[in-house]
Amino acid sequence: GGGAYGAAKAGGAFDLLRFVQQPQVLARIVSAVFALIVFSCLVGDGYTSRPEDPRLFCVFNQNEDACRYGIGIGVLAFLACIFFFMVDVYFPQISNTTDRKYLVLADLGFSGLWTFLWFIGFCFLTNQWSWTRPEDVYIGADSARAAITFSFFSIFSW
Question: How confident is the model at residue 92 (pLDDT cuts 50, 70, 90)?
Answer without folding.
Answer: confident
